[in-house]
Write a structure and sequence with these properties.
single chain; 293 residues; 5-stranded mixed beta sheet; globular
């Protein structure tokens, strides 16, 4: 299995974006042009309780989307809805499970946004049914609250048997410390909203705050990855400690490839790439079928 086909293009996009239609500081037209002029190929505008329509052209795609929330006090439940076909109606009283149900009924893909910022526990997430992805990184949560990375959260839900898709997003509002901070790189069959979403659901993408994953291969029980220059490449799993988990270059040199042979207790593996500036890239979970214990 290879993550990417060598003869198909890759596209960079942000899946969590706010504009003046809710609590963002720029109008949609300006936001679209800002991302378009900075190397992005697609965008999901996710204003609060507002569905933004699908827009497609030869060089830029807007995925129809919105964001819906419930904030009882102890935990903030924010659900990003990607690929909406119909409007979703909620208010402050709509419970998180009902939000997810309505998003799915409207043809959308429910994403748990910024769980670290939200102080959501793994058990709270596992009590919800039907969500498909989670933000392992959220730009505004990092830039303004120092809780952008939800790494421990995603590993905790994975040890409980849930292997969600892993996204990295800006969640831009202020267009300062929350801009161009997190994105995904995806390989769809066609450059359309539906095809991009299909590729996301199939896991043909990686999430990043900086480094690149050029290729990821699973062959004969070995997981191999090729990346941009990194300080270390890590193979995270449900096992607490593995001596071969982290690969570094010799004598401080950068590393651009690494391999890992899962052990008998590994039930899943995900690849995490860390560059010299502490920026990270994330593969999705790789479920291992033949394991013991």
């Amino acid at each position: 299995m290879k993550l990417f086909c060598e003869n198909k293009p890759l596209y960079k996009g942000n899946l969590h974006t706010h504009t003046k239609l809710s609590d963002g500081r720029k109008p949609p037209e300006e936001v679209i042009e800002l991302y378009k002029s900075n190397g992005y190929s697609f965008l999901a505008i996710t204003d609060h309780r507002k569905k933004y329509p699908k827009v497609e052209s030869d060089d830029f795609v807007i995925i129809p989307a919105g964001e819906y929330h419930h904030q009882p006090g102890h935990t903030a439940y924010h659900i990003v809805a990607l690929g909406l076909k119909d409007d979703v109606i909620t208010d402050d009283t709509t419970e998180p499970q009902e939000i997810i149900n309505r998003v799915r009924a409207a043809g959308g893909m429910p994403v748990i946004a910024h769980p670290a910022w939200s102080l959501m526990t793994p058990d709270e997430a596992m009590d919800l049914e039907g969500w498909e992805a989670v933000e392992i990184f959220n730009g505004i949560s990092e830039g303004y609250a120092n809780r952008g990375y939800s790494i421990e959260f995603v590993d905790a839900v994975a040890t409980r048997g849930c292997l969600p898709l892993l996204l990295s997003s800006d969640d831009v509002h202020f267009f300062e410390h929350d801009l161009f901070q997190g994105w995904i790189v995806v390989q769809p069959d066609e450059f359309t909203s539906d095809s991009i979403l299909e590729a996301i659901r199939a896991g043909r993408f990686y999430a990043s705050t900086g480094p690149e994953i050029h290729q990821l291969t699973v062959e004969d029980g070995v997981i191999s990855v090729e990346t941009s220059e990194a300080e270390r490449i890590c193979f995270m799993s449900n096992v607490w400690y593995t001596a071969t988990r982290t690969v570094r270059g010799e004598n401080g040199a950068p590393v651009t490839s690494a391999s890992y042979t899962p052990g008998p207790k590994d039930k899943w593996v995900r690849v995490e790439v860390v560059d010299k500036n502490g920026k990270r890239a994330f593969s999705n979970f790789i479920k291992l079928e033949k394991t013991e214990g």
